[in-house]
Design brief:
Elements: E1 3-9, H1 16-24, E2 31-38, H2 44-54, E3 58-63, H3 68-78, E4 83-86, E5 92-93, H4 97-103, E6 111-118, E7 121-123, E8 129-131, H5 132-139, E9 152-155, H6 156-161, H7 174-183, E10 188-199, H8 203-210, H9 217-231, H10 236-256, H11 263-276, H12 284-300
Parallel strand pairs: 1-2, 1-4, 2-3, 6-10
Antiparallel strand pairs: 4-9, 5-10, 6-7, 6-9, 8-10
Helix pairs in contact: 1-2, 5-7, 5-10, 7-9, 9-10, 10-11, 10-12
Length: 308
């Protein structure tokens, strides 16, 4: 098979049929669809196996629950295509999604990114071609969030040869971290001004994650992004953009969870802000949030040492 589509699944029987129908109806036929069931307890397996019985391109794999990153890693391990696409089990794709993305992939192009729609909002990168630095810079655009997986076609050789996988200790921004690690190994990206991926955010799931300790792993993801960008000598403007993103996320999570933040979470906020607050080029609002976070931490957690 030329293109492998990896679909992680967990208790998605209500939405899975639409997702798989959109994949089955692709204009480009030479695909394999790897369905990774991450320990579902509903009828996900029944729906998935209906497609497997009717279409030999679909392959169902069950694993014990370990999270979406472990499911995607299992899909990467099992895939056989020259290219990889990731489609979430509550999203769907345009009938010409694979065909259009694949048509733009060449020896000189390592990554193809299309537009996507979430709700009534469409997001398209207007630049046609970008190098490594510009690509990573665009991924962290607050106005056009582009760190998602679904609107991208990856070369499996780059993933395999560089042992790129999803960090299973990260539960938010794990897709951005994966994209940044992949981008460290590429030269050029092709951007398409066509909306081919339809993202359906599950508000209840996102809200639950934001209220748990998993939200703070987003800080871990962004710190790892900054580390990678520094290690691979990206332009300082790119590194600073991610540092500013990190500071915004760090203060945002803490200020939203002051009452329930644990001692270890407060320690994490302090260490992150102490490390990065003098780097980057944070705007006035972020600087104000940093100051406010320090003030609150000072009065709620004395004896931790100087915060300078």
């Amino acid at each position: 098979m030329n293109v492998s589509i990896i679909v992680p699944m967990y208790n998605v029987s209500d939405t899975l049929r639409r997702t798989l129908e959109s994949i089955k109806n692709q204009s480009y036929y030479d695909i394999e669809v790897i369905l990774i069931d991450d320990g579902s307890q509903d009828d996900t397996a029944i729906v998935a196996n209906e497609f497997c019985k009717k279409d030999t391109r679909f392959k169902y794999i069950y694993k014990e629950n370990g999270g979406v990153s472990s499911a995607r890693n299992k899909g990467i391990k099992e895939h056989s295509g020259h290219y990889i696409a990731f489609v979430d089990s509550d999203d769907y794709i345009h009938p010409q999604y694979v065909e259009t993305l694949l048509a733009s992939m060449t020896d000189d192009i390592d990554w193809v990114i299309c537009g996507y729609q979430t709700g009534k909002n469409c997001f398209i990168t207007k630049k046609e071609m970008t190098d490594r630095d510009a690509t990573v810079y665009e991924l962290a655009d607050a106005k056009v969030p582009n760190g998602y997986l679904g609107n991208k076609l990856f070369k499996s050789s780059i993933i395999r040869d560089n042992d790129i996988c999803f960090d299973q200790s990260v539960h938010m921004c794990e897709d951005l971290l994966f994209c940044v690690e992949y981008a460290c190994k590429i030269k050029h990206t092709k951007h398409l001004d066509k909306v081919l991926y339809f993202y359906e955010p599950t508000n209840a799931s996102i809200t639950r994650r934001m209220r748990t300790k998993k939200a703070f792993t987003q800080i871990d993801a962004l710190e790892k992004c900054v580390y990678l960008l520094t290690l691979y000598s990206f332009h300082p403007m790119v590194v600073n953009r991610y540092i500013n993103f990190l500071l915004r996320i760090t203060t945002g999570h803490y200020l939203k969870r002051i009452a329930t933040a644990t001692s270890s979470e407060k320690n994490k906020v302090i260490e992150t802000l102490k490390t990065y607050k003098k780097q980057g080029n944070p705007g006035f609002i972020i600087r104000l949030k940093i100051l406010l976070s320090f003030v609150i931490l000072f009065f709620t957690k004395k004896g931790m040492g100087d915060i300078e």
